[in-house]
């Protein structure tokens, strides 16, 4: 059986899926058509129900949950992993006048956008762009502030940028829950196959962990020229026990985020259970 599988080229995703897509483990007869794309592209595709299995932001998953169900393995949740609001000035009163400032964000359906709106509900002057363009947008003055994710958390200071607020830290303080960032979901119509795919993703990640901190060529090839040290920091931050299995705490964190989405008007109540 062949299934389409989409995830991002970021080290956390390629680390998780390397053994599966490159057949370093027994894939139980499954073949995968692999598509690597920016997460907001994957979000848009999920809303169109294009891929069989996909990485996507949790707000996009909530909006597409009639078509997709959340797998237990492969997701990105955690503490201390949230997006950062940055500026090119070290000090100032940006937060007090944030309603008048322009903010670069990595996509309307991203968890980063939801967490920013959670912290600053009245800041509406947003510009959406690919996550890797946000640092330059702030540096060039195209936007006043930016919300960064992925490896940019580790590079923004080297470029002369400054943190205004850790949006993940704000979420954790207010909600007392881990941050659900990225989901791995599968089409509901595949039926019982979903449990087999879930098991394969877990085995792929277990294989990766068993060889860590070794960085494979597959991860390096897609890592946009970052150093191995940054790759490891990226993996260490975003891949954890929740990635192996959401567990009860992970599921509760997802439910908490869904409640915030519903209260903000971004998602009506799901018609199906979110979880496999």
Structure notes:
With 276 residues, the protein is of the alpha/beta class. It has 2 domains: 2-78 and 179-263, Periplasmic binding protein-like II (D-Maltodextrin-Binding Protein, domain 2); 84-175, Periplasmic binding protein-like II (D-Maltodextrin-Binding Protein, domain 2, 3-Layer(aba) Sandwich). Helices cover 39% and strands 18% of the residues. The chain contains 11 helices and 11 strands. The protein has helices at residues 11-21, 39-47, 58-63, 111-119, 134-140, 167-175, 193-211, 217-221, 228-238, 241-244, 247-263, and strands at 2-7, 31-36, 53-57, 68-70, 76-78, 84-87, 103-105, 126-128, 145-148, 162-166, 179-187. Strands 1, 2, 3, 4, 5 and 11 form a 6-stranded mixed sheet that branches. Helix 1 crosses helix 7 and helix 4 (111-119) crosses helix 6. The longest helix has 19 residues, at 193-211. It is globular, with a radius of gyration of 18 Å. The protein starts with a strand and ends in a 13-residue tail after the last helix. The model has no long low-confidence stretch (mean pLDDT 94).
SSE map:
Blueprint: E1 2-7, H1 11-21, E2 31-36, H2 39-47, E3 53-57, H3 58-63, E4 68-70, E5 76-78, E6 84-87, E7 103-105, H4 111-119, E8 126-128, H5 134-140, E9 145-148, E10 162-166, H6 167-175, E11 179-187, H7 193-211, H8 217-221, H9 228-238, H10 241-244, H11 247-263
């Amino acid at each position: 059986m062949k299934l389409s599988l989409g995830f991002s080229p970021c080290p956390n995703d390629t680390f998780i899926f390397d053994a599966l897509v490159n057949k370093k483990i027994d894939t139980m007869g499954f073949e995968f058509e692999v598509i690597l794309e920016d997460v907001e592209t994957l979000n848009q595709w999920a809303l169109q129900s294009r891929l069989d299995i996909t990485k996507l932001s949790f707000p996009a998953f909530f909006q597409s949950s009639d078509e997709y169900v959340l797998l237990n393995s492969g997701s990105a949740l955690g503490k201390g992993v949230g997006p950062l609001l940055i500026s090119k000035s070290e000090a100032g009163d940006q937060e007090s006048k944030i309603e008048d400032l322009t903010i670069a964000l990595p996509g309307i359906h991203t968890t980063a956008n939801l967490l920013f709106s959670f912290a600053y509900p009245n800041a509406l002057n947003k510009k959406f762009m690919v996550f890797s363009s946000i640092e330059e947008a702030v540096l060039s003055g195209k936007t006043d502030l930016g919300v960064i994710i992925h490896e940019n958390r580790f590079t923004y200071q080297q470029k002369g940028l400054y943190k205004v607020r850790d949006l993940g830290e704000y979420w954790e303080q207010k909600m007392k829950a881990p941050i659900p960032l990225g989901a791995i979901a599968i089409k509901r119509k595949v039926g019982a196959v979903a449990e087999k795919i879930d098991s394969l993703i877990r085995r792929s990640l277990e294989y990766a962990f068993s060889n860590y901190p070794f960085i494979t060529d597959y991860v390096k090839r897609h890592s946009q020229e970052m150093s191995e040290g940054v790759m490891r920091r990226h993996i260490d931050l975003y891949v954890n026990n929740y990635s192996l299995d959401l567990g009860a705490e992970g599921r509760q964190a997802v439910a908490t985020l869904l409640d915030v989405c519903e209260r903000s008007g971004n998602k009506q109540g799901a018609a199906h259970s979110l979880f496999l």
